[in-house]
Design a protein that fits this description.
Elements: E1 5-10, E2 17-20, H1 26-52, E3 67-72, E4 78-85, E5 88-95, H2 101-122, H3 130-135, H4 137-148, H5 153-161, H6 168-173, H7 178-183, H8 188-207, H9 214-227, H10 231-251, H11 282-285, E6 303-305, E7 312-314, H12 326-329, H13 336-339, H14 381-385, E8 396-408, E9 411-424, H15 428-431, E10 436-443, E11 448-453, E12 458-462, E13 465-470, E14 477-484, E15 493-502, E16 505-514, E17 522-530, E18 539-541, E19 545-547, E20 552-560, E21 567-574, E22 589-593, E23 595-598, E24 606-609, E25 618-619, E26 622-631
Parallel strand pairs: 8-25, 8-26
Antiparallel strand pairs: 1-2, 1-5, 3-4, 4-5, 6-7, 8-9, 9-14, 10-13, 10-24, 11-14, 12-13, 15-16, 16-21, 17-20, 17-22, 18-21, 19-20, 22-26, 23-26
Helix pairs in contact: 2-4
Length: about 625
């Protein structure tokens, strides 16, 4: 249900009009309108009170904008979409549920926009007042009733064109066939009449019979004879041949000898003689023959393997025309392909002593007791050819979270945490294009503000359980997105920026301290300070990197301890302006960048299978990184 009710509410005074759907009680619509009015009045009263007190930091009236939406109600919650036209609020009421709220909002906004068009047309302009609406109250009432039940833009344009100067009945009923006329199509009555005429014509022609006169038939016979004069003679000859063949077959003895016994043998009877040059041209005779080509010379050479325990020449057979025998060509095969697999050359005649603790695995050693030497490169030649690759056992899921915060000196001004749940399916090649389908549940969502899921792949089962079904993909698929309440968002790092401008000398200090409740200390943290000018002289502590093109000063901290004293980053530089000159205040902004991975998400949200003891997916390391983490 997209829109449940439409209403016209002036900024001052009682409601002008209320139009509801059949199944929506008007009493509930009045409750929603009253809550919207009280909310609007409360905002306006707070704004006036703040202006009288001298505090103008609250901004404008949030409901005095040209359009917007507001959720009202306590037990029964409704979403009110409004547009302010001059001094009249055009309101659309819909449900505030979480499953299909986005569809409700967009459809309700479209209906409210159509209602605005009706109101503006009735008042002949944007100067909409209650007095002008009262003059066209009947037309507006019926037009909003049609708009509330759904109307196309073509029919709406026809209704608005007939609102002034024509009767109400023509405005309401003449628009049914407007869309068909605009598109060039016929109305249903015309199409139905054409179909009835076509059916009557088919029935009349199917039951009709025609009798040709005798003169017409005789003229047709004469034309047929003129066109085919030898038809009768040809038919008689065919009948004579059939009679003769039947007589010959009747006189034939079934036990008589075959005539093929008396014929001489013809060896070349099945071959057709070619009088061309193919008899003398050998290339044409050999064109259809396929001859297997020999391998290239490089393929016949042996390959030398220098891995310890497997040294030797492998592969390669020499082709020659010396007429050697098969035994001579493969004489070296009894030496374990060059000695690489002959254990007697490496182990020795003595029995290898069996030691305790390895369970017999020491018998796999084929070299001496001394450990194998590792080349200077750090890896044996065999390890250069072997690459370890971990294969996926099944679908994998992980959480990627991003936190943004703004500190003004030591006070936290703003904070926000956004998280995304990713699904990595088996590759299409290994899964055979089989869909991935399983159920999972999410725990630790007490601080979640809002959750948005990709409905084409995920469906909610209630109580924090979800069911996913999707086709395999090469890239990770984002299936859920959520945001945290600011008051419940944990902070990984507190930052404070202090600046002092004395004379022509500017001093900046950044203090930072880690959250002791983190599962692991932050590593590879980068602090960036935007400098107001390109410094000619700069003194920093500890060492930092200066980017003159971007006017940035960067510190890289390898690790911030969980329970340690606050860290300090200091910088001092001369500037052109002086504090005594009374110019604009120098602005210095700092940024923090970090990114960590771990088995636990920073927000405390965890993923679990829907049923215990069943592994439908595998969890990999979760990601946690900083977004816009600033201090000034």
């Amino acid at each position: 249900m997209s829109c449940l009710a439409l209403s016209l509410q002036p900024t001052n005074g009682s409601d002008i009009l209320l139009q509801t759907r059949e199944w929506f009680p008007p009493a509930r619509a009045l409750v929603a309108l009253s809550a919207f009015r009280h909310t609007r009045m409360a905002f306006a009263t707070g704004k006036h009170q703040s202006v009288e007190d001298g505090d103008t930091s609250l901004g404008d009236d949030p409901l005095a904008a040209s359009s917007g939406q507001l959720i009202v109600g306590v037990e029964s919650r409704y979403r009110v979409v409004y547009r302010l036209v001059n001094s009249i609020y055009v309101l659309g009421i819909t449900t505030a549920d979480q499953d299909d709220s986005m569809n409700n909002v967009f459809e309700c906004i479209s209906i409210v926009n159509q209602a605005v068009s009706v109101v503006v047309t009735a008042c002949r302009g944007v100067d909409v007042t209650p007095e002008k609406l009262s003059r066209k109250y009947a037309e507006v009432y019926l037009a909003l009733d049609i708009v509330l039940r759904g109307v196309s833009n073509i029919r709406l344009a026809a209704m608005l064109a007939t609102m002034h100067g024509d009767s109400i009945a023509k405005m309401v009923h003449s628009a049914f066939d407007t869309e068909n006329k605009v598109r060039g199509a016929d109305s249903w009555s015309i199409v139905e009449m054409q179909a009835a005429e076509q059916q009557a014509g088919v029935e009349s022609f199917s039951n009709a019979s025609f009798e040709l006169p005798l003169e017409t038939l005789e003229a047709g016979d004469e034309v047929a004879v003129a066109l085919a004069p030898n038809v009768s003679g040809t038919l008689s000859e065919q009948q004579d041949k059939e009679v003769k063949s039947e007589e010959g077959e009747g006189e034939k003895d079934p036990f008589a000898a075959s005539n093929a016994l008396g014929k001489p043998e013809e060896l070349l009877g099945g071959f057709k003689k070619d009088k061309g040059q193919s008899g003398t041209d050998l290339t044409l005779a050999l064109a259809g023959l396929e001859v297997t080509s020999l391998p290239p010379p490089a393929a016949t050479e042996s390959t030398h393997i220098g891995v310890e325990g497997f040294e030797g020449e492998y592969g390669g057979i020499e082709f020659s025309n010396d007429g050697s025998t098969l035994a001579e060509d493969f004489e070296g095969m009894n030496q374990a392909w060059g000695g690489g697999l002959d254990a007697s050359e490496f182990v020795g005649p003595k029995k290898v002593p069996k030691s305790q603790g390895l369970g017999g695995l020491e018998l796999l050693q084929t070299g001496s007791d001394a450990p194998p030497t590792v080349p200077a490169g750090g890896a044996t030649p065999l390890e250069n050819f072997l690459v370890k690759k971990t294969e996926m056992k099944g679908p994998e899921m992980y959480i990627s979270e991003e936190i943004s915060a703004e500190f003004r000196e030591s006070l936290l001004a703003r904070v926000g945490l956004m998280g995304v749940v990713y699904l990595r399916t088996l590759p299409p090649n290994s899964s055979g294009d089989k869909e991935t389908e399983f159920s999972f549940k999410i725990e630790g969502t007490s601080g979640v503000k809002r959750v948005v899921m990709q409905s084409s792949r995920v469906s909610s089962l209630g109580n924090g359980m979800f069911h996913v079904r999707t086709a395999p993909s090469e890239k990770p698929i984002p299936i859920l997105k959520y945001s945290f309440l600011p008051r419940l968002t944990p902070l990984p790092l507190r930052v404070r920026l202090i600046k002092r401008h004395s004379g022509t000398l500017l001093s900046v200090m950044v203090q930072y301290v880690s959250n002791p409740d983190l599962p692991a200390p932050l590593t590879d943290v980068t602090f960036v300070v935007k400098l107001p000018v390109d410094p000619t002289l700069l003194k920093v502590s500890p060492k930092a990197v200066l980017n003159r093109s971007e006017r940035e000063l960067k510190w890289h901290i390898e690790e911030i301890p969980l329970k340690g004293s606050p860290g300090r980053l200091r910088a001092r530089m001369p500037v052109d302006s002086s504090e005594e000159d009374g110019g604009e205040e120098i602005e210095v902004v700092g940024y923090v960048k970090f990114s960590i991975q771990g088995t636990q998400s920073f927000s405390g949200i965890s993923l679990w299978p829907a049923s215990e003891g069943k592994t439908d997916f595998y969890q990999v390391n979760h990601r946690y990184e900083s977004g816009v983490y600033t201090c000034n």
